[in-house]
Every structure is written in C-alpha cells, then in structure tokens.
Amino acid sequence: MLTRAARISPGSVADTYPAILTGYDAYIHNSAFQGISHTKAVRFQYRHNDMDHLEQLIQKAVGQYQTVFIISEGIFSMDGDICNLPRLVEIKHKYGGLLYIDEAHSIGVLGKTGGGVCQHFNIDPTEVDVLMGTLSKSLVSCGGYIAGSKILIDYLKFKSEGFIFSTGISPPNVAASLGALEIMINEDWRLKRLGENAEYILEALKSRSIDTGLSKSTPIIPINVGKENTAIQLSLYLNENAILAAPIIPPAVPENESRVRLFISALHKKEQLDYTTEKIIEGLEKLRAG
C-alpha cells in the first residue's frame, strides 16, 4: 500500500486488534512512539535491542492479553545499528504475536539487492507482519509504503486516518521510486560499495578514538559528543569545510546524548572519507581547546 505520508503509524495497526499488548524498542523513531501512544493498547518499552528483556516483559503479561505487538526498526535511525530480526521472529512465534519493522533506513541498504533487513538475515518477509518504509531515502521520492497481509492492507485502507484523509501519491513520485528499485536490483555494485565505504570510515574513526556509538558498518554513523552545543558547533565546522553533517540534539535524542550524524554514500571516494575523518578530529580538537 502506497501512502502520501512517509509513515503509517503502528497505532493504526495496533488498533485493529482487541486486547493488545504493545512492546517497542527504546530507540524506535518518535513517529512510531507517537502513533502507539494514542492507541488503547497497553504498552511497554524494552531496552534497546535487548531480546532477553523483551521476552521477560512479555512473560510477565502472558495470559492477560490476546496479542502482543512488537515494534522495532531495521536500521536504527539515530545509532546505525541493526535489529536482531532472527530473535524478534522467534519471540513473535513463541508468544503468538505480531511483528512490525520500520525499514525507513534499511531498505536499499541491507541485503544483496537492497531488499532490507529480511534479505540481510535471509528471513522470509512474510515472517514480519508489517513492513513499513519511506520513499524519501533510498527510493529518492516522497511518500511511504506499508506491506502486510491482504486482510491487514484492506483494513488499513478503510480505517487508517493517515490514508483516508489524504490524497493519493502522485505518478511522478511512484515512477521515481520504481526507477530507484530497478537500479538497486540491476546495479548491486552500489550496495557492495556502500557497505565498503561505511565500514572504511567507521574503522578509521574508531582507530582515532572517535565515539561512534552502536553503529555496525551501516551508512548511518553518529559522532557522539554529548553536549548539545558541541554537536551544533561541530556540525557548523564541518559545513564550513564542505561536509554536510547535521547535529542531532534533544528532543531527537536524550539530554547529553547529542551527536553529529554522518550519512555515507556508495559514490563517496576514499579520499573524501579520509578528509571527513580528519576534519572531524580537527573540529573536535578545536572545540576542546575552546
């Protein structure tokens, strides 16, 4: 199902099931959290990517709810790490639950042909009840999509306010995303190069003792600096040196967890990545010196 808005809230899905218990990763995108916060579902937060904690919390509620609805992201947008999809699927089956994965940052990035987190782990996509994504990143357009069973999609078309009270996506937007999909499938060297570039700069930064947090060789690499003003000043310094890297500050991240976020491209050259690494180090040194 294609939508004009980039995101269909998981709340739209949660409301389709009675007596639902919703568990969400602590690092899910704010739009997902806002969606479920407006539902009637009882909800709980589990520690980031901590599958044991998720299962412990589900076990405490077994028998009290008809369905458990688990929400996670493919690649986490602020940290660049990947969800533990094999365990999520395992837990979903063990407790007869439903699984919702936000693929906004993983489609076109993970998997041999950019098929996303399911392709990355070689898991049948039908094991995930709802796969949601945006057309505005790897798919170079505007709008979003949601994939699931025919019953679920038909229901959302009649019940999702985000779909009902908006106009359809435009044909040029669809054509642009279809073109991007063709490139992803037919030019898989881009995905290979993307992975190589991400790993190259991540290792370079780590070797220079730069805090890159949880990033795991994905194109999202945070430069964790803590203070909000430090993130803003580092971003400005990089911009002055022809490097576009936005500051991520509260409320997008918790207090004292501000960062500058890098997005790596398949078309970046090693020289550009080396230059970026040096400018990050240079900028941090200048800020520390006052």
From TrEMBL:
Gene3D superfamilies: Aspartate Aminotransferase, domain 1, Type I PLP-dependent aspartate aminotransferase-like (Major domain). It holds the Pfam family Aminotran_1_2. InterPro entries: Aminotransferase_I/II_large (IPR004839), AON_synthase_class-II (IPR050087), PyrdxlP-dep_Trfase (IPR015424), PyrdxlP-dep_Trfase_major (IPR015421), PyrdxlP-dep_Trfase_small (IPR015422). Residues 36-280 form the Aminotransferase class I/classII large domain. It comes from the Bacteria. Keywords: Transferase. Its cofactor is pyridoxal 5'-phosphate. GO terms for molecular function: pyridoxal phosphate binding; transferase activity. This is Aminotransferase class I/classII large domain-containing protein.
